[in-house]
Amino acid sequence: MDKAPQSITQWADKSGTFNRLPSQFRNSISKQPGAEFPPEKGQYHLYVSYACPWAHRTLIVRKLKGLEDIIPYTSVHWEMLEKGWRFATADEKLPGENVTPDPLHQGVTHLRDIYFKINPDYKGRFTVPTLYDVKQGKIVSNESSEIIRMFYTEFDDILPQKYKEVDLFPSNLRQEIEGVNEWTYNDINNGVYKTGFAQTQEAYETALPPLFAALDRTEAHLAQHANPYYFGSHLTEADVRLYTTIIRFDPVYVQHFKCNVRDIRSGYPALHNWLRHLYWDHPDAFGEGTTQFEHIKRHYTRSHGQINPARITPVGPVPDILPKDEEVPAVAAALRSTNQ
User: Fold this and answer.
1) Long-range CB contacts for residues 217-224, cutoff 8 Å, separation at least 24
2) Less crowded by CB within 10 Å, the N or C end of the chain?
3) 52 is catalytic
């Protein structure tokens, strides 16, 4: 087909500045009577990529809210070339659960094929996450920020009590969370892409300072308030949305997206401790249950030909994430000096 949207390179404007296009499907699952998309077990299928930070949000919330038996998922292969995300073939063995051919549509090789089945004239982006209604053959949403909020409450009536009580968007913190979301998205979540996909030196050097100013701001907040989460003792949406960028920062964004003013493990101690707490103390939701470094590193380095034409994946950093009781040598030496 020749209906694929313009490439990442073409998403930059004449000044070389990266511009993210909006998601096209913005429907909602709702428990209101008569809703087009009711919250029923087995009605929906979630398409994700372990490489993608936006899709990663939905995998984390799906775990935290206990939706595993209600919403199954499939992860695409980490490779995203001219036809977009492709499904793994039956003979490919990749790390992570459910990295398989599409279980719902026989013969489909790429995520975009599902979009074209729904609308042969579709001209938008073929993105993950994609929340698909199996019964109706429709895409509900491909906007991660809205999918995770559907997961927060809309299935509560069919969940065990302990998962109903998981509240990632508590009413007493909503105003603060929304405020944090705005600048974290603009300057960190999307900020790494503004630097990485910049097509001129000027665009790159314009995008870089806001990213590190926002990381400095986050570091200052966490140094004062993380106990152990972004807003103290309560795990919230703010943790989920920040985590999926920070876990990728040292493995790929530092080198591949040229975000190399500082890394997390040696330049941001409070962020580093916050990150490791989530990864190691919540292994199912934040750790190996949803974070797959092979997918992350190979996707970025082998799918973005305009950045890395030779498709060489750097070995480091080693390890991808440090244990909670270990620091890089320079930080360890500084801590010993401070404690003497």
Assistant:
1) 217/183, 218/184, 218/188, 218/242, 218/268, 218/271, 219/268, 219/269, 219/270, 219/271, 222/270, 222/271, 222/273, 222/274, 223/269, 223/270
2) C
3) yes
